[in-house]
């Protein structure tokens, strides 16, 4: 192991620590609402400015202290980091446990031609290292050293800079995403409702202030509503709905463009490389051998537009299934042929649409429809027994019929197929999802039975890889046992590593 001294980051890394603190602050925005509300109630402008200035100074001082106590060292087989103010922590991340290496170029470091090297571990979710404000020479040298060490021959950190390893010579272009594709991705993956929920929570805190401002403008909504006809009220409600949809869609499209602008996927024989990002330019490297599953994700609007999102999943310890995690490589808004070609770069599999799937028992559909019927009947009777709501008693029926139709499609699509070392699970309702895994990467298999399932010779099969657990319920017991035994045989007899 190298005896190289501990190093400090460049002083510009203070900008990174400020940005990281602000991200953590925004992530806990709900806890800050009372404090922000209290500050806005301060009538003295001088006091408000003083509080804002003091908060800014505190953030900068905190970032400077973080920078002062941060040290890192790169040895022949590991990256070591010491950080923390009151509680010092040392992270030793061996090269063999590194899952992803990415080079980030955030907008505040780009003019300085500095990058942030992010190293993601295949172990605990909290075991990742960020080396901020490195120059291109240092970042490239560490990156190449990690890659070479994982191939079995670690060079010395003192060697001359290597801008490209031999594996990059054969790097080939796989796919890119233009602005139109990103707009489609924003339309079909609309998560802006989360932002609107946060805005709604903030609005409740500032409702009185907003009412006072509206009164100053001379707008009287009460008078407008008193004189409004039913047609006007319907038109206003419809306009509000359309406006909210436009806002939500715009936010979602903007988020897609910020995250995936300039998207380009390239590959070599052993790894995939993604370059993307508008404000922060990111370069993410993923070893093909560490891909645990290929996920064809298609919602209803994706199906209407003939698109899907392809997700390559790695070892995951995320509890919230974050879409933008570096543990998942997402190719947004691709067609089925494009998804098949990209999957073949990692897993040898045919077109998932062409396989014959073992379906699940109709008893699953009967159970779900009976549960839905009981819930709907109870709700209808409850509304009927309340005189004021009797006119609305049949309102749940059309919704129940729609949910029943979705349950039918879910049952119809749910299935599994085995082809050599490959298992494919199909699910979905309007949109269709396919999850492709390699059986030699199985971690555990389970058969789950209830008393009633045992009587009907049915069983639920659970296949677990490092990124997810696939559950196919209500399979014929004999088929489920065969798949379990065959999967365990592939995992034990193949001699291939799941990493």
Structural features, described:
By secondary structure, this protein is an alpha+beta fold. Among the domains are: 13-98 and 117-167, no CATH class; 291-359 and 414-493, no CATH class; 362-410. The protein is built from 16 helices and 20 strands. The protein has helices at residues 13-27, 29-40, 45-68, 136-150, 166-169, 179-188, 193-205, 207-217, 221-226, 230-260, 300-305, 336-344, 362-385, 396-413, 451-455, 477-493, and strands at 71-74, 78-83, 89-94, 98-105, 114-121, 128-135, 172-176, 264-267, 271-276, 281-287, 293-297, 308-313, 328-334, 358-359, 415-419, 422-428, 432-438, 444-448, 458-464, 469-476. A 7-stranded antiparallel sheet has the order 6-5-4-10-9-8-7. β9 (271-276) and β10 form a beta hairpin. α2 packs parallel to α7 and α6 crosses α10 (230-260). The protein is flat. Residues 153-168 and 319-324 have low confidence and may be disordered.
Features:
16 helices, 499 residues, single chain, seven-stranded antiparallel β-sheet, alpha+beta
Quick summary of this structure?
Strand 4 and strand 5 (114-121) form a beta hairpin. 44% of the residues lie in helices and 24% in strands. The chain has 499 residues and is α+β, with helices and mostly antiparallel strands.
């Amino acid at each position: 192991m190298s005896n190289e001294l501990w190093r400090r980051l460049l002083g510009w890394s203070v900008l990174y620590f400020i940005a990281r603190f602000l991200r953590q602050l925004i992530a806990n925005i709900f806890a800050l609402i009372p404090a922000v509300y209290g500050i806005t109630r301060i009538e003295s402008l001088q006091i408000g400015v003083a509080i804002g200035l003091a908060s800014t100074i505190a953030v900068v001082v905190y970032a400077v202290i973080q920078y002062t106590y941060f040290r890192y060292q790169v040895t022949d087989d590991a990256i070591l980091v010491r950080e923390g103010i009151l509680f010092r922590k040392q992270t030793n991340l061996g090269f063999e446990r590194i899952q992803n290496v990415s080079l980030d170029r955030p907008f505040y470091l780009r003019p300085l031609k500095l990058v942030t090297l992010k190293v993601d571990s295949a172990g605990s979710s909290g075991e990742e290292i960020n080396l901020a404000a490195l120059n291109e020479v240092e970042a490239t040298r560490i990156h190449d050293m990690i890659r070479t060490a994982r191939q079995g021959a670690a060079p010395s950190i003192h060697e001359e800079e290597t801008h490209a390893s031999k594996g990059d010579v054969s790097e080939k272009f796989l796919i890119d995403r233009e602005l139109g594709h990103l707009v489609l991705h924003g339309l079909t993956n609309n998560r802006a409702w989360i932002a609107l929920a946060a805005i709604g929570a903030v609005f409740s805190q500032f409702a009185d202030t907003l009412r006072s401002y509206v009164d100053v403008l001379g707008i009287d909504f009460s008078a407008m509503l008193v004189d409004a006809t039913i047609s006007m009220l319907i038109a206003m409600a419809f306009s509000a709905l359309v406006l909210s949809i436009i806002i939500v869609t715009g936010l979602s499209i903007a988020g897609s463009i910020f995250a995936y602008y300039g998207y380009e996927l390239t590959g070599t024989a052993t790894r995939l490389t993604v370059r993307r990002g508008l404000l922060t330019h990111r370069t993410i490297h993923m070893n093909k051998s560490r891909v645990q599953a290929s996920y064809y994700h298609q919602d209803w609007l994706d199906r209407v537009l003939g698109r899907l999102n392809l997700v390559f999943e790695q070892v995951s310890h995320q509890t919230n299934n974050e879409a933008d995690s570096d543990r998942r490589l997402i190719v947004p808004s691709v067609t089925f042929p494009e998804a098949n070609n990209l999957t073949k770069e990692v897993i040898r599999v045919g077109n998932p649409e062409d396989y014959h799937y073992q379906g699940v028992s109709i008893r699953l559909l009967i159970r779900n429809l009976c549960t839905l019927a009981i819930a709907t009947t109870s709700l209808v009777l409850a509304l009927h027994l309340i005189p004021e709501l009797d006119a609305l008693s049949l309102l749940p029926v059309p919704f129940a019929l729609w949910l029943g139709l979705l349950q039918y499609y879910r049952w119809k699509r749910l299935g599994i197929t085995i082809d050599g070392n490959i298992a494919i699970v199909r699910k979905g309702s309007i949109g269709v999802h396919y999850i492709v895994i390699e059986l030699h990467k199985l971690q555990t298999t389970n058969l789950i039975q209830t008393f009633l399932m045992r009587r009907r010779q049915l069983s639920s099969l659970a296949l677990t890889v490092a990124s997810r657990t696939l559950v196919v319920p209500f399979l014929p017991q004999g088929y489920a046992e065969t798949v379990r035994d065959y999967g365990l045989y592939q995992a034990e007899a193949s001699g291939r590593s799941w990493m």
